[in-house]
Amino acid sequence: MSAFILPKPGEWDGEVRPLFLAPMSGVTDLAYRLLAKECGADFTITEFTNSTALTRDAATSWRKMETCEAENPFIPQIFGGVSKDMALASELLSDSADIIDLNFGCPAPKITKICAGAALMGQPENLVSMCEEVVDRVDIPVTAKMRLGTGQGDFNAKEICQELEHVGIQRLCVHGRTLKQRYSGVADWDYITSVVESVELPVIANGDVVDSNSAKACLSQTNAAGLMVGRGAIGRPSIFGEIKVGLGWMEKEDLPWIKAHEGNWENLTETAQQFATRRWCWNRYIELARETTGLELKSMRGHAVSFTKGLPSAKKIRSIMHGKTSKEEFAAATSDFLASN
Asked: Which of 39, 68, 106, 131 is catalytic?
């Protein structure tokens, strides 16, 4: 096992287990990954990226693979429908990566129509042989993320995971929904539990973990080796620290947005705490982007909507967007909005 991949643990008894930021297109850029780590995430993964595009030296795809010394470990995630491209892309990434993660969980039509992502769960033999080819090509650990199945017929993640254990995959992550479900319905933690029990590899549970209560419930039920948070972390990188505080893994006063707050945090209303938390996160994201990849207006606009979602008067951010063309002006205006409560 790698230093970054611990052996499968036993029954969960409240002890610390790692929290992962899920790979998400348009969300998990380098600055956001670094921010999530500062907020309490133990592992972060790049945006999922097309392996064929990487082998063809596509600049847009390689930009998603940007990293820096502060990102440790660096875990790029790739997808594709062609085994030789998956293997070659993994080899190209292996000099800078600590772990290669393979995506068999994305339900987006633009991915599944090329028989990649979750669509490969409908071709389990191809999925397993693809993983074996990648494992054989690189000298670093290879991990895989998948769903329960395609939704056509019985779930098959358990059988696939058993096969992947045999070909050398070192860690698994299972999202408790099918390709057909996409993000609807309820994540099936019962099936994730059966996957955990069926292999000797560490299995990370993904789906419907949105706070410390759901994190506790998921770990208690599945005994997973860790939890991956996706949609719950969009615009809320603070969720990782909040989960750790709720589970007793971290002291509340050690949360960076509380440490940075001038005055008594407990005197703030719940809404004021939300504004203050998100303002700290937004300002830190901007700082990290400046220090690494530089400010990019498209990414900033997407993150600004997410950071303000659910807050009172959040729709104002759209008028702020339309009124600011300078990146620095837009960053400052969003920060000012989050300071308005």
From this structure: 106
